[in-house]
Amino acid sequence: MITYKGTVIRPPSEADSLLIQVTYGCSHDKCAFCGTYPGKAFKIRTFAEIKADLEWAKKNIDGEFRRIFLCDGDAMCLSFNKLMEILNLINSLFPDIQRIGIYANARNILAKTEEELTEFSRNKLTIAYLGLESGSDKILKAVNKGSTAREMTDAVIRAQKCGIKMSVIGLLGLGGRKLSREHALETARVCNAMNPRFLSFLTLMLVPGTPLCDDYENGRFELLTAGEMLEELHLIVTNLELNGTIFRTNHASNYAPLEGTLPKDKDKLLRLLKTYLRGEAPVKDEFWRGL
Length: 291
Ligand code: SF4
Fold this sequence. Notes:
By secondary structure, the chain is an alpha/beta fold. The protein has 10 helices and 10 strands. Strand 4 (67-71), helix 2 and strand 5 (99-104) form a beta-alpha-beta unit.
């Protein structure tokens, strides 16, 4: 069997992918809103452990998946050589694999040269998911993201130049009520500078035990209402000027599921958002929201 340790997450678009843990936890593990890997000390698994999982998959479920997703939090933190060793093994065991995906942060993309990133994409690592969360440096610093908007922009541009499609993820409500407008405008501005292939938004849910939840409980952070979250999203979409980006809010945390290609569907998305804002379409009940 494939051995999984602790919570294992993947993006919605990797629902049918074979999940292989390359690391346990996240190399940063300091974001104030994140409760994804509680108590899971960061560790890079050994090549022998990863190989055992891939060989089990080859023997038992080959043909049942077309994509592989490398977990956990940011497997891109591996050195070029370590990641190439894993990509080479995947390609030799599964020559028909369609693509390999990974979570990445700005620092571990920028630590790779263009030649190294191009070598990854040649070996089917063709999609990476990066949590931008916000385009506002004030908010990024407040939530201890560990990267600036400029670093994330450079990382996305560099990876895409090397054939890795970037899927950038924003987090609605992260500026609270006080910084909602700045969050929306700066996030749109930074997304425009990145022009990612995919752009999606999650909606903030406070996780007990995290510093942000603590701030909320002590009156230092105001959580937006569903309507305010959607107003914020409306302001973001209004200001997006993207070219050929697939836009989605299909994550379980969102109040309204939207999907379209920008710029083609911008007016349609804004009209749909207005129907939610005017109460003509029901927003998702809190009960059905999840992370
Ligand atoms: S949000 Fe991402 S980068 Fe931040 S601690 Fe959680 S897994 Fe790590």
